[in-house]
């Protein structure tokens, strides 16, 4: 009976470890998904065309067609999509435009004074 309790405890430990591993995996997927959604929001705010966004998505799906061994396919797709979105030229132009916007808004005020 004692041996059975020890075996049950070992099984429960293994199940707990598997649950913890899954929790960590889901947490990583959630973080990556949030990053992707933030990038999509930034691109939407910059009025990226649906065609350009579609090209990014198709490029991502094409590059993830054959899953890499040892890497979860969902995470691989999200990771690749994040890289594709990050590489989008509009996002790299955004900081320059934001830096210019306050100057262009403040210049008329300075002139009017």
Structure report:
The structure is a single chain. The chain is 85% helix and 0% strand. With 113 residues, it is mostly helical. The chain has a domain of 65 residues. Helix 2 packs across helix 3. The C terminus is likely disordered.
Mean pLDDT: 80
User: Structural class of the secondary structure composition?
Assistant: mainly alpha
Task: Give the uncertain stretches in residue-range form.
Answer: 96-113
Percent range for helical residues? over 70%
Mind describing the biggest β-sheet? Answer: none
Coiled coil: 2-46
Protein name: EFCC1 protein
Keywords: Coiled coil
Organism: Cnemophilus loriae (Loria's bird-of-paradise)
Q: What's the short story on this structure?
A:
The protein is an all-alpha fold and 113 residues long.
Provide keyphrases for this structure:
113 residues, mainly alpha, 4 helices, 0% strand, disordered C terminus
């Amino acid at each position: 009976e004692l041996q059975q309790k020890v075996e049950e405890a070992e099984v429960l430990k293994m199940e707990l470890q598997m649950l913890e591993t899954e929790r960590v995996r889901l947490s990583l997927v959630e973080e990556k998904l949030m990053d992707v959604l933030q990038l999509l929001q930034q691109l939407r705010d910059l009025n990226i065309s649906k065609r350009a966004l579609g090209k990014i998505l198709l490029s991502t799906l094409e590059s993830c067609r054959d899953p890499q061994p040892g890497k979860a396919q969902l995470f691989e797709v999200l990771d690749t999509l994040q890289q594709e979105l990050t590489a989008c030229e509009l996002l790299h132009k955004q900081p320059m435009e934001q830096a210019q916007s306050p100057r262009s808004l403040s210049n008329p005020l300075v002139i009017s004074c």
